[in-house]
Design brief:
The complex is a heterodimer of chains A (166) and B (425). Chain A has helices at 11-26, 30-34, 66-76, and strands at residues 37-45, 62-64, 89-103, 106-119, 123-138, 141-151. Chain A has 166 residues and is of the alpha+beta class. Chain A has a six-stranded mixed β-sheet. In chain B, strands 13, 14, 15, 16, 17, 18, 19, 20 and 22 form a nine-stranded antiparallel β-sheet that branches. A four-stranded antiparallel β-sheet of chain B has the order 6-5-4-7, with no helix packed on it. Classes of the chains: A alpha+beta (166), B alpha+beta (425). Bound molecules: FE2/S2 (inorganic) cluster (FES) and fe (ii) ion (FE2).
Chain lengths: 166, 425
């Protein structure tokens, strides 16, 4: 399969990828989720007080290159990842999907999210924010080159850790 | 009669902590007055307000505080409350201002705290003088090498005396900068832990837990090419000691095994980082001499400045403070600290190195949070299971390992002395 030209990618294609990703993450099928990423993918959660910052000069909550993404998945697949053992139950709502830029073989798409997280003691956390993705058209289809999850809350506060994939 | 808070019997090699002190709201109430109002409390770093008129608002020791660099460049800290009826005068997290106007009736203060404008001032009697209504400064404000502390009690000893042996460990942090200037990096990690604040004091330099709690982190480091094998007789991949620094401050001082941006290379930093890290190290040696340079570059130090400041000088430099919002809950605030002259690539490497272990999205900190929350959960049994065991290392004389618990006992002894009015050891 050859890569589709970026101009041919429709919003439905992007939505399909986002919905597929959300389903995999909610099901904790993390190895399958890795298959949606490019080999140079990055996963970013900026700090709550600098949502538009750059991880090279700003302390993020998460700023993984592909090596640490894979390490994170290996960790989360282990029963020794105590913060997620037993695992959280999550349910993701992804909406308001828009393609905002196209250049070369990549596009930038944004979406809103709510991730409900349940774990122990009936504890409920709502992680609310927006995603900004860089997606690349490849021979295997549309793949995630960068995903940035920007939380709306001004501090993590009662949400505690971001120990699952947000 | 109430049972003691701690049982400290060196001759019997016994040290126990009454679990009540981690659970009982009355204890927290006492701590506010006897610990937090009688110690120097970390407020912030001078680099956070670099320019005249810069300000930050913080909650410190239960009070809203406004940290300001005034029009003349002086650093001041005000209680963030209007002298009229008490409204918080500044609502922003940070910024730059020449004046602060209270939203309620419009009283306006300059950045030296002077009340400069009162709308409808003519309605006040002749005894009213604006000069009597400046913003209230914190009772005492002092800094050591850029680390700024406040004190809310009577007659505090000078900060430099209070810090005692902790000063040397702050010096080791500052020595990483050729110009002896560090800065707090942009970006704040702020998160809650559902556990008593003192559990995070313990956890911040409890090296005994590394192996059990952080096995997935160690696995990641191992996969990256770092040796995490335990030498015979050790519970950590590299040796280290625990030390009391006086006044309740303590440290673990360890041989580095997991890399340091200043200046010990590990494979995770990448081949391309080698020349730059070698250059940083050469500068250290030229400036500080071989021995001191090795101390700066090849050791990790987790420092607790009593009661609630932690500086982890390891795979990065983290500055972390925490405040009990309830007996079983704390708000943690953490920043990264780095030399001001650090290159763009070094700074990026420092931040990346920070995140591998630390913070609410790191590969290790969330497991600490989990551990502490499970401790707090377990402590609901405190009436039946009264004592926690903190005696590692008491069976030997002389130097104590980082995985012994001398440093934890140091904190608890000071805490106990202040809480019971005994002689603060
Ligand atoms: S309370 Fe500030 S002006 Fe009235
Ligand atoms: Fe830990």
């Amino acid at each position: 399969m050859t890569a589709a030209p970026i101009d041919a990618v429709r919003r439905e294609d992007v939505e399909a990828l986002f919905f597929e990703e959300a389903a995999l993450l909610d099901a904790w099928r993390l190895d399958d989720w890795l298959g949606l990423l490019t080999d140079d993918a990055r996963y970013l959660v900026p700090p709550n007080d600098v949502p538009d910052g750059d991880p090279r000069d700003t302390l993020f909550t998460i700023a993984d290159d592909i090596r640490r993404i894979r390490g994170r998945v290996k960790r989360l697949n282990s029963a020794e990842a105590h913060a997620e053992s037993p695992r959280s139950r999550t349910r993701r709502m992804v909406s308001n999907v828009r393609i905002v830029e196209r250049a070369g073989d990549e596009l930038v798409a944004e979406a809103n999210f709510i991730v409900y997280r349940f774990r122990r003691d009936e504890r409920i956390g709502e992680y609310v924010g927006r995603y900004r993705y860089r997606l690349r058209s490849t021979g295997e289809g549309l793949r995630i080159a960068e995903r940035r999850a920007v939380l709306d809350c001004e501090e993590l506060g009662g949400l505690g850790s971001v120990s699952f994939i947000l | 009669m109430d049972r003691p808070f701690i049982v400290d019997e060196p001759d019997k090699e016994r040290f126990r902590l009454n679990r009540r002190v981690l659970v009982d709201p009355e204890i927290l109430e006492m701590e506010h007055r006897r610990i937090f109002d009688r110690c120097w409390i970390y407020l912030g770093h001078d680099s956070e307000i670099p320019g005249n008129g810069d300000f930050r608002t913080r909650n410190v020791a239960g009070r809203p505080v406004l940290l300001v660099r005034d029009a003349e460049g002086g650093v001041r800290a005000f209680l963030n409350t209007c002298r009229h009826r008490g409204t918080m005068v500044c609502r922003e997290r940070e910024g730059n201002r020449t004046r602060f106007t209270c939203l309620y009736h419009g009283w306006t203060y300059d950045n030296r705290g002077t009340l400069t404008h009162v709308p409808g001032e003519e309605a006040y009697g002749g005894a009213f003088d604006k000069a009597d209504f400046s913003l209230t400064e914190v009772p005492a404000l002092e800094e050591y090498r850029g680390f700024r502390f406040v004190h809310f009690g009577d007659d505090p000893e000078p900060l430099a005396d209070y810090l005692a042996g902790a000063k040397e460990y702050l010096d080791l942090v500052v020595d990483q900068s050729p110009s002896a200037r560090l800065e707090i990096v942009s970006g704040t990690q702020e998160y809650d832990i559902r556990a008593n604040w003192k559990l995070l004091v313990e956890n911040s330099f409890d090296d005994y837990h590394l192996h059990a709690t952080h096995s997935t982190y160690l696995e990641y480091m191992k996969d990256s090419g770092v040796s995490v094998r335990l030498p015979k007789g050790l519970m950590m991949p590299a040796p280290g000691v625990g030390r009391s620094l006086g006044n309740g401050h303590a440290v673990v001082d360890n041989v580095n095994f997991r890399g340091r941006p200043v200046a010990a290379w590990i494979p995770l930093y990448g081949e391309e980082a080698k020349p730059e890290i070698e250059a940083i190290r050469a500068e250290l040696v030229a400036r500080l001499g071989e021995e001191r340079a090795r101390r700066v570059a090849d050791t990790n130090r987790n420092l607790v400045v009593f009661p609630n400041l932690v500086i982890n000088d390891g795979s990065a430099v983290t500055v972390r403070t925490f405040w009990p919002t309830a007996v079983d809950r704390m708000r943690v605030t953490a920043w990264a600290l780095g030399p001001v002259e650090e290159s763009e690539t070094s700074r990026a490497r420092r931040l990346d190195s920070f995140l591998t272990f630390y913070g609410p999205g790191g590969l290790a900190t969330p497991d600490d949070v989990e551990a502490l929350e499970l401790v707090q959960g377990g402590l609901a049994t405190w009436r039946e299971t009264e004592w926690s065991e903190i005696s590692r290392g008491m069976n030997k004389t002389g130097e104590q390992l980082n995985t012994d618990e001398l440093h934890l006992r140091t904190f608890w002894r000071r805490w106990n002395a202040l809480m019971t009015g005994g002689d603060p050891a």
